[in-house]
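Work Package 3 (structural annotation) set out to generate three-dimensional models for the target panel prioritized at the project kickoff. During this period the team completed the workflow that converts sequence records into C-alpha cells, so that structures can be stored uniformly alongside our sequence database. As a representative example, we reproduce one entry of 308 residues exactly as it appears in the project archive.
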Amino acid sequence: MDFNHKTVLLDETLEFLNIDGVYVDGTAGGAGLSSRIASLISEKGRLVCIDQDPDAIMVCQDRLKEFSNVNIVHNNFSNIDDVVHNLGINKVDGIVLDLGVSSYQLDATERGFSYNKDAYLDMRMSKSGMSAFDVVNFLDVSELKNIIFRYGEERFATRIAQKIADKRLHGTINTTTELAEIVKSAIPCSARRSGGHPAKRTFQAIRIYVNRELENLEVGLDKSFELLKSGGRLVVITFHSLEDRIVKERMMNWSRGCTCPSDFPVCVCGNKPKAKVIHKKAIMPSKEELERNNRSRSAKLRVCEKII
C-alpha cells in the first residue's frame, strides 16, 4: 500500500512538543510524524498512535515495527481518553492532532474524496458508517442545504441542494464526477471564474458531515487537554477555517482565567487560567515548505501548554 503523506509543519511540531516522555499522535496517518517522535523519545518514553482509517493502521504497524515502546490503536481521537487509559497510561506529556484528509486518501481514487477523479461517492475515513452516497441521495433538500452552507460556507448552498434533489428524481447519484457536475451546473458562470474548483466547498461540507469532523474535534480537544500533565503541550494543525476557529477558541478559553465583568473591582469567580498559548498567532508553513508541498498552503498550527 502506497500511503505517502507529507507531514506538514513537521519541524515546528517537534520543536513545540519538547520530546521527552509519553506522547500521543491522535491522527497518525502514514506515520510520518510518529516515526520522528518514536526515534526521539528515550527507552523509558512511550508513543501512542491512533487513527480511524484501517489503511493507516496497517501502514503504521509496518513503519513503526522496529519501535518496542509504540502502541498503535484503530480508533477515532475523540475516544483518546479511553485509548490511553486502556493502555495503563494516566497522563501524557504531549498530544498532536494533524487534522484533515491525508494525501493518500485524496489520491486513492476508490476512497471517493476527490472531485477530480471518478469514483463511487464514499468519503468515509473509517471505511464504515454513513457514506457520501447516503448523504447525497437520501437526505432531504433542506438538510442538504444546511450541510453545504454550514460545513462548506457555500453561498450557493440552496441552489446546489435543489439541483441535487432534482437530479435524484431521475435516479441515484453514484459517483464523484456526477456530483461535481451537478454542483458546477448550480453555480453561476461568473462565480466559477475564481476560488478554485466549483465543487470544492460542497465536497468539503459532505466529507465533514460524513466523518463528524467538527463534533469529534470538539470532543477530542477537551479530552486531550484533560489528559495532559502540567507542563504538557497540545499541538493542533488545521486545514480550514471551521477547524481553526474551534481550536483557537478552545485554547483562548483555557488560557483566559477570570470571567468576571470588566467593571468588577475584584475577581469573584475564582477562575484561573488552565493553559498558556505558546504562540499568539497561528504558525504557517514557510515559503520553502510551500514550494515542496503545495497542499500545505492552508495549514495552521496552534499550540498551548497546560499550567495546572
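The beta strands are 22-25, 46-51, 70-74, 92-98, 228-238, 275-277, 300-306.
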